[in-house]
Write a structure and sequence with these properties.
There is one protein chain. Strand 2 and strand 3 form a beta hairpin. This protein has a five-stranded mixed β-sheet with strand order 3-2-1-4-5, sandwiched between helices. Helices cover about 55% and strands about 20% of the residues. About 10% of the residues are buried. It is built from three helices and five strands, in the order H-E-E-E-H-E-H-E. It has two domains: about 15-90; about 95-185, Ribosomal protein S11/S14 (Nucleotidyltransferase, domain 5, 2-Layer Sandwich), CATH 3.30.420. The protein is of the alpha/beta class.
């Protein structure tokens, strides 16, 4: 005998099922990779769209700021022009004078502009309204730039009336956004 070894001729190993499993795994891997690539592309497009939206919002915000700055510049230019006109008028004697005098036992303010006929205003509880009326009578409105001098003789007028006029001028500043005044005590 052969010593216990037998020759086996014709052993065939069947690999078809192994190849089927490998092909199925290969198809699954290819499909999974294409889905992953599609998802990655979709996420990338979403990020691009979000970035574009942020850029567009930033452009709109920047344009709003530019418009706001341009508007402020235009307002400042108009203010500067108005102030220059007021200074030119001041140089030509166009100034409001508020001269306070003590007459007939009471303090009276004479409001005048450009050497026009002064308008007397009595210092009492109606002072803000009467002072506003006097300024309006010279064509001055809330947008006018008003340069004014409040003059009084401290030795003849009452101190409380001077304080009342100063307080009133502070109050009417709300009606005239560009009123600038100084006070002059003409006591010798």
């Amino acid at each position: 005998m052969n010593g216990g070894f037998r020759k086996n001729k014709g052993i065939i190993i069947e690999l078809t099922s192994l190849l089927d499993v490998i092909l199925i795994m290969l198809f699954w891997l290819i499909l999974n990779m294409s889905n992953t690539a599609a998802n990655a592309e979709k996420k990338a497009q979403e990020q691009i769209d979000a970035a574009n939206a942020k850029v567009e919002q930033a452009k709109q915000d920047a344009q709003k700021q530019i418009d706001s700055i341009n508007e402020q510049n235009e307002q400042m230019r108009k203010q500067a022009e108005n102030m220059q006109n007021a200074l030119d008028g001041f140089s030509n004697g166009k100034m409001v004078t508020l001269e306070m005098k003590y007459e007939d036992g009471r303090d009276v303010i004479y409001v005048s502009q450009d050497s026009q006929q002064p308008k007397p205003v009595i210092v009492n509880s109606e002072l803000p309204e009467k002072l506003t009326e006097a300024l309006n009578s010279y064509g001055l409105d809330k947008d006018s730039i008003i340069l004014a001098a409040f003059m009084y003789d401290g030795s003849s007028v009452l101190y409380r009336d001077v304080n009342t006029v100063q307080t009133t001028l502070g109050k009417i500043k709300g009606n005239y956004k560009n009123i600038y005044y100084t006070q002059v005590n003409t006591t010798k």
